[in-house]
Amino acid sequence: MSRSPCPSDSTRTAAVVNKDIRDLWQRSGGRLSPEDEEQYQRLLVEWAAVTGGSSRPAA
């Protein structure tokens, strides 16, 4: 079973990606394996792309 994000032709919302990040941390017990770290990095890139790279809402 693949843990990779959805294919690039489908855009997921920031909320969905954020949920996946939270789920990954919860599953890992706060300690990421090398495989989990790779997935985490992919999710961060996906999240940044969806949010425009900003963690703060526009003023």
General description of the model:
This protein is mainly alpha-helical and 59 residues long. It has a domain at 14-51. The protein has two helices and no strands. It has helices spanning 14-28, 34-51. Helix 1 (14-28) runs antiparallel to helix 2. The longest helix has 18 residues, at 34-51. The chain is elongated and about 30 Å long. The model has no long low-confidence stretch (mean pLDDT 84).
Task: Give the helix/strand layout.
Layout: H1 14-28, H2 34-51
Largest sheet: none
Order of helices and strands: HH
Strand content: under 5%
Mean pLDDT level: 84
Could you say which overall geometry the principal axes of the C-alpha atoms support? elongated
- In total, how many beta strands? 0
User: How many helices?
Assistant: 2
Q: Which residues form runs of ≥5 with pLDDT under 50?
A: none
Which structural class fits the helix and strand makeup?
Answer: mainly alpha
Over the alpha carbons, how many angstroms does the gyration radius reach?
12 Å
**What percent of residues adopt helix (DSSP H or I)?**
55-70%
Q: Measure the end-to-end span.
A: 41 Å
